[in-house]
Amino acid sequence: VWIPLKVDSGEIRASTAAMYKYMLKVSLPYLGELPIKQITSIDIINFLKYLRTERKTPDNKPLSDKTIKHHFNILRIIFNYAEKQEYITKNPINKVDAPKVVKRPVEALSQEQASVFFDALNKLDNDYRCMMFLMATAGIRRGECLGLQWCDVDFKNNTLRIVRNVTY
After folding, report:
1. What's the pLDDT tens digit per position in 110-147?
2. Residue 7, exposed/middle/buried by CB under 10 A (0-12, 13-18, 19+)?
3. Residue 155 class from Cβ within 10 Å (0-12 exposed, 13-18 middle, 19+ buried)?
4. pTM for this predicted structure
């Protein structure tokens, strides 16, 4: 019910809907056999344990803390929706602690690496040089860079507005 009424309704961005559907390919085989009214907080805790201990990425690495938190957040959204629509009277997700995300240090370029990078930019066409310089110095993402339009550039105040992105 949640997917057609909320995810496919056009209320959320296409990239978010795609991410929800991708993540549900993991949670539905684990929890999907149970009617939503029968899923308990213990089932959710066991699912999170499965994600931490058994589930692997396509390259056989453990899932990151952030990915596990995404799975939890999607379940929270689904159970909150089920509660709001009165499919369930008790929300089992409320009895489960959200997974902790340990922040990793940012891996920035050293001065020497940055110097090599910026020297290499001079060998690129202007379009690519501008995009790579902008992403490296402003910290914007690839999709945000590709979503920029001239109206987003404020030459008077020397600012950029990031208001759209391009997705695959």
Report:
1. 899 999 999 999 998 888 898 999 998 888 999 999 99
2. buried
3. exposed
4. 0.72
